Amino acid sequence: MMDLGVTTAVQQAEIAQALKASGAIVRLEQDEFRKILSKSESPLVVTALGGVFSKNYQYLTSYKGLCFYCKSDAPIRLPSDAEVVQSKKIWIPE
């Protein structure tokens, strides 16, 4: 059986690897996320419904090589020219 220190180290290594694979992810509030979307022509937005005890709405887009993520309690109004992809789940490393 692994001791707690080894288990924690393994988990940290897995998180670090996930970050390397996914690149930089910037978490934004709704208003800032909408500003990023407004700067893009026909932005691609991945959406997902999340939450265990209460529903939340999750959004992911990219802009100038960075990935931007937003989670909100209510749906965000997306630009009419946005290309929206509905995902089953969005997983962001903590």
Keywords for this structure?
single chain; 94 residues; alpha/beta; Signal recognition particle alu RNA binding heterodimer, srp9/1; five-stranded mixed sheet; 2 helices; 31% helix
Commentary on this structure:
This protein is of the alpha/beta class and 94 residues long. The protein is built from two helices and five strands; from the N terminus they run H-E-H-E-E-E-E. Strands 1-4-3-2-5 form a five-stranded mixed sheet, covered by helices on one side. A hairpin with a 5-residue loop joins strand 2 and strand 3 (56-63). The longest helix has 19 residues, at 4-22. It is globular, with a radius of gyration of 16 Å.
Number of separate domains: 1
Q: If you average the pLDDT, what whole number results?
A: 85
Q: Count every beta strand, where a strand is a DSSP E run of 2 or more residues.
A: 5
Q: What is the CATH level 1 assignment?
A: Alpha Beta
Q: Helix amount, in percent?
A: 25-40%
Largest sheet at a glance? 5 strands, mixed
Sketch the topology as an H/E string, one letter per element: HEHEEEE
Strand order in space, largest sheet: 1-4-3-2-5
Give the strand content. Answer: 25-35%
Q: What's the gyration radius in Å?
A: 16 Å
The number of helices is: 2
Terminal-residue CA separation = 26 Å
Could you say which structural class the secondary elements and strand pairing correspond to? alpha/beta
Q: List the uncertain runs.
A: none
- CATH topology title: Signal recognition particle alu RNA binding heterodimer, srp9/1
Second CATH tier, the architecture: 2-Layer Sandwich
How would the global form be characterised? globular
